[in-house]
Specification:
binds inosinic acid, six-stranded mixed beta sheet, single chain, binds magnesium ion
């Protein structure tokens, strides 16, 4: 495992994102939508630095079927609060192909939110498969599989306090341990 973004760097990037979001929305109420499970740690750190009245909702999205390749996207939106007329901010851990954020964005837009914007901790370069502009980005990263700070490989590593690159040796070790 190689550390890509340290704990200190993560906190700096998140503070910068929070400052941008505070600057954009001012005192307007914001409904933050946590895309579970990967963004849980980011959301916890980010919303404590937001200064407007914040409501919190969540959707559950899963596209990775225990591997590093993308599977069919499943979206559970049954836990969302009433979004009619609200400013919604979708927060996800990473923008990879863009399919997850695009699907969540389309769904939220249909629920009557006045504005729908998005924020991600990580934006992975060279993987985007559709037109989608993310409004707030913490860090741009190269096309490598990363874990930690919410991001998982086969359900583990989410609790790492830093973002690390899972190296091929780590993957092989995992397979041997299973
Ligand atoms: P997308 O739909 O291809 O943009 O993928 C977004 C989702 O895939 C993220 O919310 C993550 O859950 C997962 N994902 C994409 N890249 C990585 C990675 O490098 N590590 C862990 N999860 C990833
Ligand atoms: Mg995710």
């Amino acid at each position: 495992m190689k550390v890509l973004i340290s704990e200190d760097e993560l906190q700096q990037g998140i503070s910068k994102m929070a400052t941008e979001i505070n600057g954009q929305f001012g005192e307007q109420p914001l409904t933050v939508i946590c895309v579970m499970t990967g963004s849980i740690i980011l959301v916890a750190d980010l919303i404590r630095q937001l200064t407007m009245p914040v409501k919190l909702g969540s959707v559950h999205a899963s596209s990775y079927r225990g591997d590093t390749s993308r599977g069919e996207l499943e979206l559970d939106t049954s836990m969302l609060p009433d979004l009619n007329g609200t400013n919604a901010l979708i927060v996800d851990d990473i923008f990879d192909t863009g399919h997850t954020l695009n699907a969540v964005h389309n769904h939220i837009s249909r629920l009557g939110a006045a504005t729908v914007q998005s924020a991600v901790l990580l934006y992975k370069h060279g993987r985007q498969e559709l037109e989608f502009d993310v409004d707030f980005v913490g860090f741009e990263i190269p096309d490598e599989f990363v874990v930690g700070y919410g991001l998982d490989y086969q359900g583990i590593y989410r609790n790492l306090p830093y973002v690390g690159v899972l190296e091929s040796g780590d993957l092989a070790d995992e397979q041997e341990n299973n």
